[in-house]
Design goal:
By secondary structure, the protein is α+β, with helices and mostly antiparallel strands. Helices cover about 35% and strands about 15% of the residues. Keywords: DNA-binding, Transcription, Transcription regulation.
Length: about 240
Amino acid sequence: MKLQKDTKGSESAVSSGEGPHGRWYGDACGAAFAMELLGERWSLLIVREMMLGARRFSELRQALPNLSAKVLTERLETLQANGIVARSFRKPPISAQVYGLTDWGRALEPVLQELGRWAVRSPMHDHTLPLTPVALMLSMRTMIVPARASGLELWIAFDIGEQHFAGRLREGDLAIHPIGEGMTSPDLRFTAPAASDFLPVFYGKRSAAEAGGRLKIDGDPAMVQRFIDLFALPPKCEG
């Protein structure tokens, strides 16, 4: 693993056997320590892609195509050394090595949610850039307005390209997990070639037809509309 240099040119504390806290900033602040744990390029996005379940190395590479195999290997090693990621093996018939978040790593979801809410308020945020299916699912968990979901309980299927997710809406919370095959008999089903096809409908509040017809929707129209209306982006910041 290529060693990261700190501002004094010394080797990273990860390689020297010391703890990572203080290796960059020499600051006792918890936020400074968080940046030392997750501040290397790509680290937080790798964590994001494992937030809904363990992933194979090849799946992480496919989700983040601009990330080289070498850098992914280095980041996974560091995240494992810091107790955020653990490596395990799926049982037959899959029999594959996978990387997943530890309990402590999964506790980062609220952090990702608050970062997301904060960042999309910027006028510089570009929603036209590529979006992974996992990022979309986490966005929906983030941008739901619980008060609007009072008394609503649903099973929702999300089919995005070759990836499938099952959603369970209950008591204002949207739980989502990946599934191998398409979900059978959900209350609502949303199908699209890419995650970005959801955005103009769920956040832009355009009809599927107005958005180009790439998002296919199955279910009672009134319930579909009520579900879509559960989601809202925060207002843009001023000045």
